[in-house]
Amino acid sequence: MDKLLIEGGRPLEGTVRISGAKNAALPAMAAALLTSDRVELDNVPRVRDIITMGRLLAHMGAVVETPEIPPTSMIFQAETLNGAEAPYELVKTMRASILTLGPLVARCGHARVSLPGGCAIGARPVDLHLKALEQMGAVIGMSHGYVEATAPGGGRLPGGRVYFDKITVTGTENILMAAVLAKGETIIENAAREPEITDLADLLIKMGADIQGSGTSTIRVQGKEKLHGAKHTIIPDRIEAGTFLVAGAITNGQLKLTDCAPEHLTSVIAKLRETGADIREAGPGTLVVRGGKKLVAADVCTEEYPGFATDMQAQFMALATQAEGTSTITETIFENRFLHASEMIRMGANISIDGRRAVVHGPTALSGTNVIASDLRASASLVLAALVAQGETVIDRVYHIDRGYERIEEKLAAVGARIRRV
Length: 422
Ligand code: UD1
What we know:
Layout: E1 4-7, E2 13-17, H1 22-31, E3 38-42, H2 48-59, E4 63-65, E5 74-77, E6 85-86, H3 88-91, H4 101-108, E7 110-114, H5 127-135, E8 139-143, E9 146-150, E10 161-163, H6 169-179, E11 185-189, H7 195-206, E12 210-212, E13 218-222, E14 230-233, H8 238-250, E15 254-258, H9 266-274, E16 278-281, E17 287-290, E18 300-301, H10 313-320, E19 325-330, H11 339-346, E20 350-354, E21 357-362, E22 370-372, H12 376-388, E23 392-396, H13 399-402, H14 408-414, E24 418-421
Parallel strand pairs: 2-15, 3-14, 6-7, 10-11, 18-19, 22-23
Antiparallel strand pairs: 1-23, 1-24, 3-5, 4-5, 7-9, 8-9, 11-13, 12-13, 15-17, 16-17, 19-21, 20-21
Helix pairs in contact: 1-2, 1-7, 4-6, 5-6, 6-7, 8-10, 8-12, 10-12, 11-12
The structure holds uridine-diphosphate-N-acetylglucosamine (UD1).
């Protein structure tokens, strides 16, 4: 199993190109199931979850091409589907496989997708996805660990008024994809407003869908009988950009991030500025972060977009260990998302956890040791902590980081980090 070895204490300086957003590319790939035509995506990050989703689509009969040039492009064609089924072997490694349920039932009238297993950061059920599909007229059944969704008579879903009790990102995406091929109108209320939803809607509109209101809490979709192929460029990864902003600030360095979308990072930038980080826009899609000033504590509460992203919470905690004063971090989206704290404590951080609240007293000198990555963003936070720790940190189970960060050690090494994979 791969490990990352990081020798801390060096300021990061240089330029980092931000990759495409994994969380936008995954639903875009699932959307390719909605048409028999070619769907060409660009700015797709080469990360493990994308490979897993590619395998899943290929398993269903789609042709998946990964051309060498340009290196971020992928082409999908689901001319015919040989089985509207997502097997456990593929779903268990990636919860986002559930994103195939909506498009499959919309296109084939029937779908069978394995239930995702437990997840380190909480129970993460899919009940909201299923309830919403029922509201669109699907019949839902469960057997042998699989969820089965069937449209009336195996034909098209009728569509309907869908209300989410709780805001769910992939739930909204699933229903959006089911709705575009429904017979009638679907109105999605209490929809997620993340930029990844808008990016998916933009792709679906290019494919011929009729969607209004993406990026707001109410999305209206008029179903179409058929969608066609399209070309689409995936939006930049706001979480990767946020992670590198923290890397620049925490190491007292100076990083220029290119190909990013500062407009998707408003809450993260505001919070980092509150801690004293100097962040400026330097032209379209470009951000510069400079360290230098003493970092000061700030409180953070995770929220749905446009609030502070839960996917940036662990990285913010790493920063808080280096900030003067007491930072309170409240996690409202997931019930068990402080697994990184115990590893940071082993590195010397002063953190106490009380339910969904973490209190970080700083600054504390961190020292390198052996730590274990527990999930994707937790591993990123341990990399950040290791970058400022004295001596060497060995991060185990880095497959978590490979699920969502493209060539992280190459990108960090290019701006001066002493990091290697063993
Ligand atoms: C997506 C992101 C993930 C991010 C999360 C929250 C992708 C592939 N993943 O995950 O990186 O951390 O949004 O911004 O885009 N819930 C239920 N029942 C459901 C669905 C969700 O109870 O059927 C709960 C979850 O347990 C969680 C909350 O709702 O507490 C929000 O989860 P959700 O927005 O669905 O997260 P994902 O879409 O899985």
